[in-house]
From TrEMBL:
The keyword Membrane applies. GO terms for biological process: cyclic nucleotide biosynthetic process; intracellular signal transduction. The lineage of its organism: Eukaryota, Sar, Stramenopiles, Oomycota, Peronosporomycetes. The chain crosses the membrane at residues 6-31, 52-72, 102-126, 147-170, 182-207, 228-250, 262-283. SMART domains: CYCc. This is Guanylate cyclase domain-containing protein. PROSITE patterns: GUANYLATE_CYCLASE_2 (PS50125). Residues 322-432 form the Guanylate cyclase domain. It comes from Globisporangium ultimum (strain ATCC 200006 / CBS 805.95 / DAOM BR144). Keywords: Membrane, Transmembrane, Transmembrane helix. SUPFAM superfamilies: Nucleotide cyclase.
Amino acid sequence: MDDSRFNWTLIYAVLLALATLVTLATLLLSFKQILVNESAVQYITYSVVRSCFIYSFSRFLFYLCVIVNYSGVRDVLDDVENGQLVGVRVIYSDETSSGKSMVVLLALIGDVALLCMTFWVILLAYEMARLIAKSMDRGRAMESHIVHVYCVRTYGIAFLFAALMIVSALLSPQQERTVRDIALTFQLVCVWVSFLYPLGCTLFLSLKKRTKKVVPPTSRFLHRRIRNLVIVYCVLVFPSCLVELLNRVIDVPIIWVGLSQALYYLSGGASALVIGTSVTCCYRTLRPVMPPSVYEQLLEKGYFPEELEHDRIVEPPMYRPIFVNTDIEGSTSLWATNTQAMSDALSLHDDLMRKELLRCNGYEITTAGDAFQLAFHTVSDAIRYCMHVQSKLLKVDWPPSILKTPHAARCYDIWGHLLFNGLRVRMAIHDGDEQLICSKHPTTGKMTYLGMSETVARELGDMGKGGQILISESALAIYEDERAILSEDKVHGAFSKQPFDLFERMDLGISFQLYELISTKIGDRFRRDRQPRNELASSRLMLLHPK
């Protein structure tokens, strides 16, 4: 074996060792719990990484045998290849396989793992595209059944491939070559399909995304994941497929064969890296030295999963948005009492509001002083957001001086349960109608909404008391419809409702019932809310000022 070919073998071994380490780390760190009975996508993703690991590890061991000349395999390959770049599949030929059962077994394991990997990649693209289009799973029983079917088909075909390769060794030399060529050609076709099909799915979904017909905002995360996987996989796999196809009809220069094969050997590790991690890891590493402005921009874009539940980009709802309007009770008095303390408290309030907004897939339309105007894609997300904010306001470490004011003091009921702590935020939920005009602000780039329902939503935000969550009758009806459609209701059982007041605008001919949503975690803080605020405080609450 000449030096140039031996150098390629060393390069392959190093790249495969790196791919093996990456895939192993992904298996150990990113798949601590595989929900086989609950998610076909998760199981298929795990199977892709597992197949990549087996393939990379077996190929690494193969080239290690070549480097150390195990059982004279390097000398035999040098003779058979006749000056061409050393390849794995030549080990299957009769003149090289004799007495090399261990090396042949490593090559066969790698080819079987490669075939399985192609099937799992195709299935992963199909399942993710289906989730993007339908935005719901099949239910536990059906997901488990689908996983079982995929396993039977994938491993069944892999078993037939391995059996065909083994049986070919028992045939005459001519028959052996024919059978082996058929099996390896089938494998090559599967590799081509494994990047052409995901590429087609991605292009189709991207086209539908631009026309805003298929991809819902809650599925943009899946679309981005499959797009990144397809880009990495295609860039690394396509050159090898093309070179192998051309090599059947012409003599491809050794440099192109070597480079394409090197890229292919990186495909497993790179795919595992895309599946198991993201650019978030890099941002998390730089977080301690990151400027606050950069951190806020990245936070708004969905990074830092330890602070956000979903790594996704939140886009403004374009059709019948669900408005949430918030306001701090007694803010004018608080500003007049202690400007610095109120400034610090408002900063804590704003951070909490925006942090929970991203977690609940909400969109910030604008702020006016201490009031927020927000939009959500579903009423469920809007309710979940309000419940989370009210609960976490009780846990904020407010400035001590702000807790000494009547509008922000800690309040307990007669049993000692904490009812209020710090700033008290009133919140109202209302649904937008079909007559809304949506347009981007020319300066800020933010989506703005103009229409009667938006005006009504802002007025509802001023009707409640600090700590109350109000919802319009129409928005509540939409929530009931969502419960029948959504596969998972994250707020069911988290609140109760009771009638509040009628909202009436005689000049506009508008009249509808309002309801108050009461968090089951906090309880009813306004059992006597028909009384004036100071009477409520004296009759039901014990106001405790910090010493």
